[in-house]
Write a structure and sequence with these properties.
Blueprint lengths: L3 H26 L5 H24 L7 H32 L4 H24 L6
Helix pairs in contact: 1-2, 3-4
Length: 131
């Protein structure tokens, strides 16, 4: 059975993916932005959204002091940068080395990244509000 925390994480995760994807498409198509730059910008916006929703609704962080909030935020962004790097590596392997389908590779890697992000957030970033 999935508890409330996991349901909220799933809900806000889906919204984060939607924000990332829609903003990316908008910046590329309507904004005529370079795809790599659009990807970075949309990822940053989605991660800010994820941090705020994870902090206040999913893991209910109790941290209220400035420096501690900064440390928590830095840890969150650092963990997301780690999984972004892992995602890029796995996509490169899946698509360019193994010759896999881009959609299947992206969907498969996203599953791994979402699960890893949850555990990093739960066990490191928001673990008993250790900042």
């Amino acid at each position: 059975m999935i508890d409330k925390e996991k349901w909220l994480y799933l809900l806000f995760g889906i919204l984060s993916v939607a924000i990332n994807t829609l903003l990316y498409m908008f910046l590329c198509n309507m904004g005529k932005m370079d795809a790599l730059l659009a990807n970075i910008f949309s990822w940053v916006v989605a991660v800010i959204f994820s941090y705020l929703t994870n902090r206040f609704w999913v893991f209910k962080s109790k941290i209220r002091k400035g420096i501690s909030i900064f440390k928590e935020m830095a840890c969150f962004f650092g963990s997301r940068l780690f999984t972004l790097g892992l995602e890029e590596l796995l996509l490169y392997i899946g698509i360019f080395i193994m010759g896999g389908n881009r959609f299947f590779a992206k969907a498969s890697v996203q599953g791994i990244v979402v699960i890893l992000n949850y555990f990093l957030s739960k066990k490191i970033v928001f673990y008993k509000n250790n900042f």
